[in-house]
Amino acid sequence: MNVPHQHKELSVPSDTSEITALQTALQQYWGYRDFRPLQREAMSLVMKDMDSLVVLPTGGGKSLCYQVPAVSRDGLALIVSPLISLMKDQVDSLNSVGVPAACINSMQSQNEKMQVAGQIRRRELKLLYIAPERLAQEKTIQFLQDANVSFVAIDEAHCISQWGHDFRPEYRQLAKLRSAFPGAGIHGYTATATPQVRNDICEQLGLLNPAVLVGSFDRPNLQYRVERRYDAMGQIQRVLKRHRNESGVIYCISRKNVEATSSALNDLGFRTLPYHAGLPDEKRRLAQDSFIDESIQIIVATVAFGMGIDKSNVRFVIHAEMPRSLENYQQESGRAGRDGLEAECTLLYAANDVDTWEFLMQDIQDAAVRDTGTAALKAMQHYCISTRCRHQQLVRHFGQDLDSANCGACDICLHEMRPVENPLITGQKILSCVYRQGQRFGGAYTAQVLKGSRAKRIVENGHDQLSTWGLMKDESEPQIRNWIDQLLSQGFLRQAGEYNCLEITPTGRQLLKGELTPSLLKMRDDIPTRATQDMWEGVNRNLFDELRGLRTRLAVQKQVPPYIIFSDATLRDLAKARPTDLAGLTQIYGIGKQKRDEFGAVVLFTIRNWCDQNGIATDIATDDGPSTPTPMQTHGRKKAETPASEAYFDLFEQGLTVEEVCLQKDRSQGTVWQYLEQYVRTHHIADITTWIPETRCKEIETAIAHVGSDRLKPLFEHLKGQVSYEEIRVVRAAWDVRDAAKE
Predict the structure, then answer these.
(1) Which of 158, 184, 214 is the last residue of a domain?
(2) Which of 184, 229, 289, 447 has its CA 20 to 30 A from that of 275?
């Protein structure tokens, strides 16, 4: 089979009218102006009935690749989805933006199924979501053959491949779709698939000369952190405290650990619910619904949870134990930050995680599948103990590379671990201990000996008499274990035998002789928190919280999840631009015609009322219009100025006044003042007398000295309303610039 693979850039023939239709639908229904990477190409293939496989990371906009074409052409699009919860979520989301969609599933009553069948006969629907096992039934196919099917989209397409991490036998029945709907294009979509899995998907689905579009697997808005597990509950709590009142998922391997972790966190005052396959259906449904509608913020789960969740505002994912493969980890951690905003992914691991997965894999009968699982587990283990950039490791696993050597978004690149002062001596101490123990003990035991433990087993073995006993007594056991992991990942040590005893490699012997030096990192006591200021720049957080409350109330009224009303990205945009009329509202990311008409009045009233009460400026110019959110600029990547701001900055650089810039750019004074404040801050301008008279500046600065600069309204009132909010903001910006220079 000819399977042309395309990466990042793809030339797909398309005519202007087709692209115009897609762009119109994208903005009208979803409120997005721009396509994300590969979306336009993927949509064009659907419009042309050319078979395709699209691989985009979670949060990369896969769903739009088939939803937008579905409303841009005649006929009914069939969407194959493996989980009822995912179907319902997608249908609710589509209906909320004015797209007629429905699903048929086993949880519906006969009457509900008949209603959907009637909609199909009357050609009222644009998308129908259906499970693979139902679509494979002959009577279902016969009914849909008269429904003017435009194309078939298969979500979670990796489920058809036995080489994938989530093989589902029922997906194999989808091969008959080619003969059932010979005139319709067939398109597979997945977030994670290695080249082997991609080829298998195309083969199993019988795709005809398919184009395979593979987007970047990098998720720059996710911050990855890996920690050796030594105090699981304490480590989990530290993450939760960084994300108060935010949604997150905690994954455990076993049902027992799910229950124990959830119970312990509840005892500590966190509100969580457990989720695993052993719970009754009603309890699983309650947990999932409570998480979706945000009556609880944290869910503790096995990997059974999440595939059917389209919740966009998950701000953290914690793996309390190591997942079984990098494919699993990429998908599970990828449930964070689907709105393109910053999110944290922390993985806790220990050696017994590997033992647990190896035990579970013993039941796999197929030797080839078992071998694939073992190799995947080794790759996952190496990810945990490596000292290389986490983002780089993930994308390289999928055959890609990063443009930058420093991702700026993982524990390694953020320098949460600092170089050891004398790595050669540290490495020699550890390897000497391994050697003197006869290379017959594992990492945990070796760390105890180096720490100087008098555990019964160590004393019985006489290892408290070794010259290496207590050699690293000033270090913690977790730190020593971490160094052992680093030496393993760099090839100075290896694990052997049933009990993973440490052995010194030939490279390790060179280290002992001083011929090679390892690269060792030490965990910092003062782990720096990631700066998210750029993501919140210009956003009024108090207004954001006010709008969040409004979103919750609207969601209760509509009986849908809050994120279906508005995403967090939309709320941030609203709290930044603070529009007061419908024209301004249409410039907000994620607000299309349906949401503008349905919620516009109450949103605008809330913004006007709140800003009036708090003396906050409104109708702030941000950019030229709504667009899909780009992944966040990470801490290590320079944030670029937009072309729009550069044009204004050039004029300020030339010494033009606010009034002169208004005339030249034909924009309101409010907009120009906003750009001036941005210019002062980003270019570190301390002297602003070009735009504000010196006497006025001193007057405002005196007020700042008296009442502080945290809030504008007290300043405005202190100045008795004689100075505009815009002038106060610019003077405050220059004040901050001078303060920063003093530091």
Answers:
(1) 214
(2) 229
Do 493 and 547 fall into the same domain?
no
* This prediction's pTM: 0.70
The angle at the Cα of 307, spanning 304 to 308, to the nearest 5 degrees, equals 105
174 lies in the same domain as 65: yes
- Both 596 and 670 in a single domain? no
Q: Are 499 and 245 in contact (CB under 8 A)?
A: no
SS (H, E, C) 112-131: HHHHHHHHHHCCCCCEEEEC
Q: How many residues does the chain have?
A: 743
675-695 tens-digit pLDDT = 888 888 878 898 999 999 999
Residue 87 has pLDDT above 50, yes or no: yes
* Amino acid at the residue 182: P
Whether the per-residue pLDDT at 268 is higher than 70: the answer is yes
In-domain check, residue 495: yes
Amino acid identity at 612: D
As a whole number of Å, the CA-based R_g of the chain is: 29
> What share of the chain has pLDDT > 90, as a percent?
46
Of 392, 393, 389, which is closest to residue 403 (Cα–Cα)? 392
Q: Sign of the C-alpha dihedral, residues 664, 667, 669, 675? A: negative
Considering the domain architecture, whether residues 226 and 119 belong to the same structural domain is answered as no
Q: How far is CA 164 from CA 193, 325, 378, 713, in A?
A: 7, 10, 16, 57
Query: CA-CA distance, 248 to 297, in Å (whole number)?
Result: 6
Structure tokens at 603: 């949103």
- 238 and 289 in a single domain? The answer is yes
Do 68 and 47 meet the contact criterion of CB atoms below 8 Å apart?
no
Cβ-Cβ contacts under 8 Å for 457 (sequence gap 6 or more):
445
Domain CATH number, residue 727 = 1.10.10
State the average pLDDT for the chain.
Answer: 86
Number of domains in the chain: 5
Residues 516 and 546 in one domain: no
Is 576 domain-assigned? yes
Out of 523, 557, 580, a domain closes at 523
Nearest Cα to Cα of residue 631 among 368, 430, 407, 444: 407
Pairing outcome for strands 493-496 and 501-504? antiparallel
Domain that holds residue 560: 533-614
The dihedrals phi and psi of 592, each to the nearest 5 degrees, come to -95, -170
More confident residue, 306 or 153: 153
Contact 185, 45 (CB under 8 A): yes
Is 634 a member of any domain?
no
The pair phi, psi for residue 221, each rounded to 5°, is -85, -5
609 and 699 share a domain? no
